[in-house]
Amino acid sequence: MASVLNPYLSFDGDARQAMEFYKDVFGGELRLNTYGEFGQPGAENADKIMHGMLRTTDGFTLMGADMPPGMEHAPGNAFAVSVSGDDESALRGYWDKLSSGGSVSVPLEKQMWGDVFGMCTDRFGVPWMVDITQSEG
């Protein structure tokens, strides 16, 4: 098997809701495992997500989890998840769902390099970039 690079997102107690949201956006199969399923002590964390993985029919893999007990959740601006391609209908659908309830920093529109591009932060604080490649000619 070839090596792969997958985004792995950290959440502050709302990983289940976020991963279910991404399943609604992208479709596919979602697996969620809780700390309780893996024998993590502490009833307050038993239902929190220790590992979540979404595999979509388009070949995306997105992983995420709630921060482990004792670790601080400190989101920042050192990353963004980028989705790109030439299927304009699918990408606009992702954009509409991702930006709904979030904030748009760059509207999804034609850019100086020719592609349709936008940036938003979803309602869970995760920054996204969507790039719709425009055909030459």
UniProtKB/TrEMBL annotation:
A Pfam family per the record: Glyoxalase
Gene3D superfamilies assigned: 2,3-Dihydroxybiphenyl 1,2-Dioxygenase, domain 1
TM region(s), chain numbering: none
Source domain of life: Bacteria
Every Glyoxalase/fosfomycin resistance/dioxygenase domain range: 6-130
The name this protein goes by in its record: PhnB protein
Lineage: Bacteria, Bacillati, Actinomycetota, Actinomycetes, Kitasatosporales
